[in-house]
């Protein structure tokens, strides 16, 4: 897997992005810009696996040749027909490959695979990334993300990282009684320096690290999608699982987060409005994002709520082969959240806690985590108490 930053004229950039998004198992889209200056600036903050460059922009911006030639990432240049000057520009910027507009569809993926820096070192076993998502608020998304993370960390004593990616209105930290000195914003502003990332990780429970959302909603804009790619890459090297509590919408950083996931747990509740919005999300994932069928799984929360909609109804409406059930627990989740103690710890024998634990067990078994000692040794240097 590798990340690609696209810099091209707007319509052409959209076309290239759509093509790459249809290959989510290979490619993570790190960003798209129609300005070389913007692209160079953002790629300096977080290095992509490869820069895919439209020669029309390069031809109009000769002052960008030197910084591109000195860039630490490979460049693939796509040129027009019979353009001898483009070959000279490709040499000037030290492009790793040169494609033409006529043939790019047939050659692009092979070129990127050949030239791109791998997102994760191929000789390392990396952790599984799990996104907890819902297109609608109020369905228990953050509650599931927090308690699932705790349950995963308890299963085989493997380290788990929990990222609050609801950047504007994240509630992970208060739900765990955390008041972190540093957040994901501070990590992003340092070009994702590993030391700053380690300092930003708080440890509410053994084997669980938390990277909190920004302290103020307006700071959400400071987190670049390319920075998120690097953060997740670093965390999954030292954690058996990286759980991301996603925002409800489809803004760029959230989509990048979804692309990075190995598994997306989509939370729904048994009511007509939520089922409609979740159905729209599933269509988007499969038809537009082209996610593999096994990547997106449904979690039916608050079953037994006497809404008139049962599990079989949900399966028929949403046509999903993967459906986990979490029983309604009345005021228990709210009470636990108010106290800042996950219910899997506060009331481990409850039906809801057992269901979350069962889900964690299934995910852990799928991942084949039989190297607990390895993960603990690698992660020991990055642990710190919560502040």
Describe the structure.
The chain has 387 residues and is an alpha/beta fold. The chain folds into 2 domains: 2-115, Response regulator (Rossmann fold, 3-Layer(aba) Sandwich); 128-382, P-loop containing nucleotide triphosphate hydrolases (Rossmann fold). 44% of the residues lie in helices and 19% in strands. The chain contains 18 helices and 13 strands. It has helices at 10-21, 36-45, 55-59, 65-69, 84-92, 104-115, 141-155, 172-175, 184-189, 194-200, 225-238, 252-260, 272-288, 311-318, 332-339, 343-346, 351-367, 372-379; strands at residues 2-7, 27-33, 50-54, 75-79, 97-100, 128-133, 160-165, 202-205, 208-211, 241-246, 263-268, 296-303, 323-327. The strands form 2 sheets. An 8-stranded mixed sheet has the order 8-9-7-10-6-11-12-13, sandwiched between helices. Helix 11 (225-238) packs parallel to helix 12 (252-260). The longest helix is centred in the last third of the chain and has 17 residues, at 272-288. The protein is globular. Mean pLDDT is 85; it is low at 369-374 and 376-387.
């Amino acid at each position: 897997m590798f990340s690609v930053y696209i810099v091209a004229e707007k319509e052409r950039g959209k076309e290239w992005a759509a093509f790459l998004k249809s290959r989510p198992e290979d490619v993570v889209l790190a960003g798209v810009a129609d300005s070389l200056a913007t692209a160079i600036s953002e790629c300096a903050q977080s290095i992509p696996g490869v820069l895919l460059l439209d020669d029309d922009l390069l031809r109009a911006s000769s002052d960008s040749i030197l910084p591109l030639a000195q860039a630490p990432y490979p460049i693939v240049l796509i040129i027009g027909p019979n353009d001898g000057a483009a070959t000279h520009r490709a040499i000037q910027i030290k492009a790793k490959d040169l494609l033409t507009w006529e043939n790019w569809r047939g050659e692009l993926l092979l070129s990127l695979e050949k030239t791109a820096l791998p997102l994760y070192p191929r000789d390392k076993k990396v952790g599984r990334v799990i996104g907890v998502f819902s297109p609608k608020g109020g369905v228990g998304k953050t509650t599931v993300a927090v308690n699932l993370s705790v349950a995963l960390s308890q299963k085989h004593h493997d380290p788990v990282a929990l990222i609050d990616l609801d950047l504007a209105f994240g509630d992970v930290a208060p739900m765990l009684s955390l008041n972190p000195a540093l957040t994901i914003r501070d990590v992003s502003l340092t070009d994702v320096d590993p030391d700053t990332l380690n300092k930003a990780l708080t440890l509410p429970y053994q084997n669980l690290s938390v990277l909190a959302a920004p302290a103020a909603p307006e700071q959400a804009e400071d987190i670049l999608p390319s920075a998120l790619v690097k953060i997740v890459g670093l965390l999954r090297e030292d954690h058996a699982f990286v759980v991301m509590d996603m925002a409800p919408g489809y803004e760029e950083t959230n989509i990048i987060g979804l692309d990075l996931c190995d598994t997306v747990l989509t939370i729904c509740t048994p009511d007509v409005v939520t089922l409609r919005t979740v159905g729209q999300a599933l269509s988007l994932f499969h038809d537009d994002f082209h996610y593999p069928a096994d990547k997106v799984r449904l979690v039916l929360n608050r079953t037994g709520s006497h809404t008139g909609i049962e599990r079989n109804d949900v399966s028929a409406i949403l046509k999903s082969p993967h459906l986990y059930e979490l029983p309604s627990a009345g005021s228990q989740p709210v009470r636990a959240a108010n106290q800042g103690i996950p219910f899997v710890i506060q009331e481990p024998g409850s039906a809801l806690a057992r269901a979350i634990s069962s889900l964690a067990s299934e995910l852990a078994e799928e991942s084949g985590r039989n190297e607990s000692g390895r993960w603990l040794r690698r992660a020991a240097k990055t642990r710190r108490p919560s502040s």
